[in-house]
Design brief:
This protein is an alpha/beta fold and 219 residues long. The chain has ten helices and six strands, in the order βαβαβαβαβαβααααα. One of its GO terms (biological process) is regulation of DNA-templated transcription.
């Protein structure tokens, strides 16, 4: 796995590189601004890019813009976006399109090394990884009269884990239920949300996020 890191905080940038190299991963380049990041993508052709949302010069959305451009140049590039705090607009805009190999994590998740590495590998494999705190805020900001109100408490638990990018086996392990039970819950969720079920995790997550984003935009 060839990785490029785009992070303007030098300490975090080098810390990430050190962590990943210690895990045997190939960090081919690091960059402190969007232009250097895109140049590294063109030069090294990485498999994964880890990108900060807010980068120079304005520290607004330069990281997201650069990530989108990097994917335009290299469509197979997996992108894991890091943010200091939940930025709901960026999360939904980046992830709601249903593209494979995308993730959005809070920077504090990096300190939980196993979780961070699991998310990185899931994104690199073409899946989706969304920070649980982002998922929680998306649910919290959904209108009270939305179709989510049709779901049982257990179905909401399953849906939240789906939105994090977990597959059926991982959800079953997290909730201490059988894989068959998870499959039934997912069928029920898609029925209640008026969506056709799909066993590919990235499609399931994209459907969840499109629905939540649509409800938020309708407010």
């Amino acid at each position: 796995m060839r990785i490029v890191i785009a992070e303007d905080d030098a300490l975090l940038r080098e810390g990430l590189a050190l962590l990943l190299r210690a895990e045997g991963l190939d960090v081919v380049a690091t960059a402190g601004d969007p232009d250097a990041f895109l140049a590294a993508v063109d030069r090294y052709g990485p498999d994964v890019a880890i990108v900060d949302v807010r980068m120079p010069p304005t520290h607004a959305d330069e990281g997201i813009v650069a990530a989108v451009e990097a994917r335009r140049r290299r469509p197979e590039l997996a992108v894991l976006v890091l943010s200091a705090y939940v930025e709901q607009m960026f999360a939904t805009e980046l992830l709601a399109g249903g593209a494979r190999g995308l993730g959005y994590l809070l920077k504090e998740r990096v300190g939980r090394v196993e979780e961070f590495l699991a998310a990185l590998h899931r994104v690199a494999a073409g899946g989706t990884a969304i920070d649980p705190d982002v998922v929680a805020q998306l649910f919290a900001r959904t209108r009270p009269d939305s179709r989510l109100e049709r779901l049982s408490p257990r179905e909401r638990d399953v849906l939240a884990l789906m939105a994090e990018g977990l597959g059926n086996v991982a959800i079953a392990e997290r909730l201490f239920v059988s894989e068959g039970a998870v499959h039934k819950h997912i069928r029920s969720i898609f029925h209640k949300l008026d969506m056709a079920p799909d066993d590919r995790s990235d499609r399931r997550v994209a459907a969840v996020l499109r629905y939540l984003d649509g409800r938020e935009r309708a407010r």
